[in-house]
Specification:
CATH topology of the largest domain: Rossmann fold
Order of helices and strands: EHEEHEHHEHEEHEEEHEEHEEHH
Shape: globular
Number of helices: 10
Number of domains: 2
CATH class of the largest domain: Alpha Beta
Strand content: 15-25%
Radius of gyration: 19 Å
Structural class: alpha/beta
CATH superfamily of the largest domain: NAD(P)-binding Rossmann-like Domain
CATH architecture of the largest domain: 3-Layer(aba) Sandwich
Bound molecules: uridine-5'-diphosphate
Distance between the termini: 36 Å
Amino acid sequence: MNILVTGGAGYIGSHVVKILLNQGHQVVTLDNLQKGYKEAVTGGKFIEADLADQKLLNEIMQKNEIEAVIHLAADSLVGESMEKPGKYYRNNFANGINLLEAMVKNEVKNIVFSSTAAVYGEPDEIPIKENNKTEPTSTYGESKLFFEKALRRYDDVYGIKYTSLRYFNAAGADPEAKIGEAHDPETHLIPIVLQTALGIRDKIYIFGDDYSTRDGSCIRDYIHVSDLAAAHLLAVEALASGRESAVYNLGNGEGYSVKEVIKTVKEITGKDFEVEVSDRRAGDPAVLIASSEKIQKELDWQPEFPELEKIISTAWQWHKSGGFGE
Ligand code: UDP
């Protein structure tokens, strides 16, 4: 298939591109390189462009005879989204509409969308299921939920079929490729702890240890980025073979606390470093764990690297090797 991957130079996108290429798909990666790294794109065609440019989107789809879209391009910092809501509504929602309009114009009928656990907000029950209430507590989560609603509408009106993948905490790195997680600024727990193990940071701060969890720190569901990427491949191929639109959670169904992550990093890296408990971070739910039963059942998705040790050790290999010049 000829597949357009938006945001394909980013952390998750680069792993998606790699897996699509491995399966023999023709990939066109579009990225504005604001957060992505050109060297993370391991093959196919690369176009540096922004989703704001609808005319260009039309041209790209037409020229490359695009048959499906995997849409990952987005701003994804929860904190920033509360300070600059307009940026998130514009880039994650409005520019996404440009993409859908270009799909309508070029009769591209299938899209896989990179959504997020942040659409749920504070969960009523754990593990979280796809039909649980969606009341995002951040503009980021809301911008992604708005786009999911738009997808539903474009399906009703134009018959564009979608798969929305609600990611929990993506982590780890491809065990073979020279790609991994490198955000600037970095806000995610696992890369921050690994940077601390490397001595790039003085110490790690635990954002609150007074939650009602087993050790007081927040619990999250970490999923290996290659397992996440594999789900995109299954989803796009399922749509191509006529599957209906669907929404799926993507997590391991296992939760690990911040303290457990830090302990595992210390064990794997053999490094000791200072840990300090600081204030809670605004908007952090105590526990987020996914039920991924639906995608396991319907798309036969199975995580290959569900263990925290494996997730952290693949990330460590990549960080140790220097990442993208840390
Ligand atoms: N966290 C922390 N210290 C840090 C970074 C994150 O204690 O330096 C905590 C954060 O409060 C959350 C968990 O680690 O409970 C995972 O945070 P991350 O930003 O990686 O992902 P999120 O769950 O917010 O998407």
